Amino acid sequence: MQRRISLIPQPQQLTAADGELDLSILSAIAAAPELHPLAWLLSDSLNRGTGLRLPVVQSTPGDPGDGRVLRLALEGDRPEDFTTAAEAYRLDVTPAGVDLTAAHPAGIARGIATLRQLLPADALREAPAADPVLPLVGIVDEPRLRWRGVMLDVVRHFQPKDFVLKMIDRAWLHRLNVVHLHLTDDQGWRFEVPSRPKLTEIGSWRAETKVGHARDEESGYEPTPHGGFFSVSDLREIASYARERHIMIVPEVNLPGHARAVLAAYPELGAGQNKAVCPTFGVFEEVLEPTQAALDFALEAYTAIAEVFEGPFVHIGGDEVPMAQWESSPIARELMEREGMEDVRGVQAWFTRAFCDHLTKMGKRVIGWDEILDGGAPAEAAVQVWRTQAYVEKALEAGHEVLVSPQTHVYFDHYESDDPSEPLRIHGLTPIEKVAAWEPAPDGIDETRILGVQCQLWSEYLPNPRDVEYAAFPRLAVFAEVAWTNPDVRQADPVLDRLPVHLERLHAMGIGYRPLEGPKPWQQGGTGRYRRFDWDFTEPEAE
């Protein structure tokens, strides 16, 4: 019996024929030299999952090669990078072989991801377990949105380099094209800046970590130091790994707030009393003082990270910046008077403008959380909206490109259900059905003005890779469909109907996903870390 073709995301056009192609009858993967890195990635993937080893041979445009081949080819005028046209592809599996064509290498990368899903689920294992067979299909595909991302928070709980690489692979399989790394916050500084050694010597470690929810005053602390950071070499390896798969890494250095780890290392840069790296979670009052020394530090950090990751975007954070220390700071008051600022929110705008000017000179584009709108954001900055739909409209009205990431639908640190045995989450309720029904461009919003969408994996209550996987999957797979597939195609073949087959792929990859039927029994050595804690939470309103 022929396998059901069940892909996530669903391609825009898919035509199936009876029968299968046994890849073992093929002689090679034929590709132009520019595509050889992708061809070898495909060859290695086939070898790991099926035992089949197809050599990569050179082909030229219009030359089918000798014998039956899996052909990767660039055809047509090359579109600009980071456009939906750059990720469009055509995949044809016939009795004579496989043809994967695109106008840009990024399209070939997306087509390879689809081809991997067409194989039996066991072909995604790290040991040969599947027959190398593909169903006969014709696929014409192009993403709906330019930016389709997932954010990984490696600060609140440090996640090792090997896991970051795995998440890049999983983004690739789901045809996402952005992995956003949240690298700095109150609870740690996670990358090396050679000119500032105390950031990793002091700022990357905290002495203890809150057990249970931050608002649970009775749960106490785990007195084990927690920390870690990525060396420059680590970051370059992450960048190279992502580049090979045509995944854009967007690094985030979150300033001028969320600065406890910075100020533990360099207290002279702050506007208040010195404190240690924060052992608990929430929003804290410590901010950078608006001095030239603090600004020079920030620009050093942005330079260091921008030189490693060659992508066009650098995230400056800018969320949840308390104003209390600036309100009582003579230095901030002097700045406000000198610059003619109407209120203290102008101090944050001063930092944002300086960050943007510096990164623009480096050939980068700035993106920040929607709070950078307060006090005015530079026109060239993109805005990532995490609060409510009203902020999408506010950013669009101000002329900014918008990345839509509302916590109500794509924050996967929220509860998966209202079952009391779910693992501890920060708050909220985002079941998989809610993700599947989400429309990122609702009535009244011009979709062409939306940069894209992104889901978030904040790690306050995700202490290790196993916990991140459980919170992410399968919600991340459903999100990927919302980001890639046009609404009419989604409605014709609902993603939740295809999800059980997709879970077989996640299982083969060793991903510890949450089952559809409910939460797994979950324990953590009796620490109480996973004890459910509910508190009243009100969605923030736009000003």
Automatic annotation (TrEMBL):
One Pfam family per UniProt: Glyco_hydro_20b
Catalytic residues identified in the record: E320 (proton donor)
Claim: Hydrolase is one of the keywords in the record: yes
EC class (word): hydrolase
Transmembrane feature ranges: none
Domain Beta-hexosaminidase bacterial type N-terminal: 5-128
Domain Glycoside hydrolase family 20 catalytic: 146-486
GO biological process, one term: carbohydrate metabolic process
Gene3D superfamilies: Chitobiase/beta-hexosaminidase domain 2-like, Glycosidases
Annotated SUPFAM superfamilies: (Trans)glycosidases, beta-N-acetylhexosaminidase-like domain
Keywords carried by this UniProt record: Glycosidase, Hydrolase
Substrates-to-products reaction catalysed: Hydrolysis of terminal non-reducing N-acetyl-D-hexosamine residues in N-acetyl-beta-D-hexosaminides
Gene Ontology CC entries for this record: membrane
Listed GO MF terms: beta-N-acetylhexosaminidase activity
UniProt EC number: 3.2.1.52
Keyword match Iron-sulfur: no
InterPro entries: Beta_hexosaminidase_sua/sub (IPR025705), GH (IPR017853), Glyco_hydro_20_cat (IPR015883), Hex-like_dom2 (IPR029018), HEX_bac_N (IPR015882)
Family in the record: Belongs to the glycosyl hydrolase 20 family.
Name listed for the protein in its UniProt record: beta-N-acetylhexosaminidase
Organism this protein belongs to: Glycomyces algeriensis
Organism placement in taxonomy: Bacteria, Bacillati, Actinomycetota, Actinomycetes, Glycomycetales
